[in-house]
């Protein structure tokens, strides 16, 4: 994302104010899950085993078990699909073979920096993304990396790689990133991930504008937990754009402070589900349907506009961070875990009709969407290019 993307987004989307949440909200996945279940009609049992692993059993009215949700796994997803999604390069190849656009990527051992440099700019030629192969929450990710910046970006990614030893080099795709959450074959939401930014007032320096924005963020419960830090990362990004913290932006000028879309760095989340084209929504569902045995996932996608005819799928996560969709900074609040439980129970009651069923408001819609998704998967398998 760049500053022009920001201007496009905020000139197109007319949210009047940030969405307010209670200061006591729990933004952890398990907390969101249990809060919903406690206030729902569904029987369940939350338990912890002797190894401190946490589970949630979803039960029928007669207390028989439908399924068990464990940490980091939705049981309706297959093991083969989960394993494939964990390998970013294989996922990209798999999707490309099924007609879905992805960026070119390759992984290297952290010691193979010279080889990576040579191969990357022979194949890609343009700027790239450098990140740990196991990157999460934007840690160690450097985007729009030029030849001149490659070695520094590699060093930064290597320092943040955690337990892994591999670095992923990926084709840089211009535009802005969103997280699409698909629940049991049903598109639940598309949330735009906006990096930290400020808007100039014609008087204040960038440093002062960051202070003012952090003061405003303190008024909002979950935003207050992620202030914008005047870090070396932000200073470095500003320098790369010939800016520094003492510069005074013009009135109404959008200035991006870092290019990585990360809420924890002081970013924001915007629900754009009702704003994007049907083409983008179709691409999202087609991409997940192409993954064997995956029904619930988070898909990271890049688009140049809300009407983009060729959105690019960056990554597929089989255990999506549901807080992104549950608590957007701008837009509607809608719990994806509610959709997951209702869909699972609706399908269970469709396959195994009980004497005393749960009354689910959108029961027929859940069943219809799942059957449509399964049909789409069969069509993709039939048409795939690697037969």
UniProtKB/TrEMBL annotation:
<keyword id="KW-0436">Ligase</keyword>
<dbReference type="GO" id="GO:0005524">
    <property type="term" value="F:ATP binding"/>
</dbReference>
<feature type="domain" description="ATP-grasp">
    <location>
        <begin position="92"/>
        <end position="345"/>
    </location>
</feature>
<keyword id="KW-0547">Nucleotide-binding</keyword>
<dbReference type="GO" id="GO:0018169">
    <property type="term" value="F:ribosomal S6-glutamic acid ligase activity"/>
</dbReference>
<dbReference type="GO" id="GO:0009432">
    <property type="term" value="P:SOS response"/>
</dbReference>
<dbReference type="GO" id="GO:0046872">
    <property type="term" value="F:metal ion binding"/>
</dbReference>
<dbReference type="Pfam" id="PF02655">
    <property type="entry name" value="ATP-grasp_3"/>
</dbReference>
<keyword id="KW-0067">ATP-binding</keyword>
<dbReference type="InterPro" id="IPR011761">
    <property type="entry name" value="ATP-grasp"/>
</dbReference>
<protein>
    <submittedName>
        <fullName>Glutamate--cysteine ligase/cyanophycin synthetase</fullName>
    </submittedName>
</protein>
<dbReference type="GO" id="GO:0005737">
    <property type="term" value="C:cytoplasm"/>
</dbReference>
<dbReference type="InterPro" id="IPR003806">
    <property type="entry name" value="ATP-grasp_PylC-type"/>
</dbReference>
């Amino acid at each position: 994302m760049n500053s022009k993307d920001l201007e496009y987004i905020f000139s197109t989307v007319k949210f009047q104010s940030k969405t307010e949440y209670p200061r006591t909200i729990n933004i952890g996945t398990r907390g969101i899950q249990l809060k919903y279940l406690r206030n729902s009609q569904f029987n369940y049992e939350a338990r912890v085993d002797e190894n401190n692993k946490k589970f949630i059993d979803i039960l029928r009215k007669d207390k028989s078990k439908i399924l068990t949700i464990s940490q980091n796994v939705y049981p309706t997803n297959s093991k083969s699909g989960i394993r494939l999604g964990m390998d970013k390069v294989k996922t990209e190849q798999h999707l490309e073979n099924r007609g879905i656009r992805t960026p070119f990527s390759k992984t290297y051992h952290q010691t193979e920096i010279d080889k990576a440099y040579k191969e990357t700019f022979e194949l890609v030629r343009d700027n790239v993304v450098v990140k740990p192969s196991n990157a999460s929450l934007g840690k160690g990710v450097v985007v729009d990396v030029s030849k001149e910046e490659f070695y520094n970006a590699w060093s930064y990614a290597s320092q943040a790689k955690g337990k892994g030893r591999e670095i992923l080099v990926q084709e840089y795709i211009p535009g802005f990133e969103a997280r699409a959450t698909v629940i049991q074959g049903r598109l639940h939401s598309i949330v735009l991930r906006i990096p930290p930014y400020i808007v100039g007032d014609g008087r204040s320096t960038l440093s002062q504008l960051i202070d003012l924005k952090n003061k405003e963020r303190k008024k909002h419960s979950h935003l207050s937990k992620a202030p914008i830090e005047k870090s070396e990362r932000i200073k470095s990004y500003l320098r790369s754009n010939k800016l520094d913290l003492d510069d005074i932006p013009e009135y109404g000028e959008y200035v991006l402070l870092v290019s990585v879309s990360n809420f924890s760095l002081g970013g924001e989340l915007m629900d754009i589900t009702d704003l994007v084209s049907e083409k983008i929504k179709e691409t999202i569902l087609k991409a997940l349907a192409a993954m064997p045995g995956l029904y619930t996932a988070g898909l990271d996608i890049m688009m140049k506009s809300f009407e983009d005819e060729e959105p690019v799928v960056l990554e597929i996560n089989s255990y999506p961070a549901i807080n992104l969709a549950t608590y957007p900074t701008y837009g509607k609040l809608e719990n994806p875990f509610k959709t997951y439980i209702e869909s699972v129970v609706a399908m269970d009651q469709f396959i195994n009709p009980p004497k005393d069923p749960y009354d689910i408001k959108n029961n027929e819609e859940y069943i219809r969407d799942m059957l449509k998704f399964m049909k789409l998967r069969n069509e993709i398998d039939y048409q795939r290019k690697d037969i």
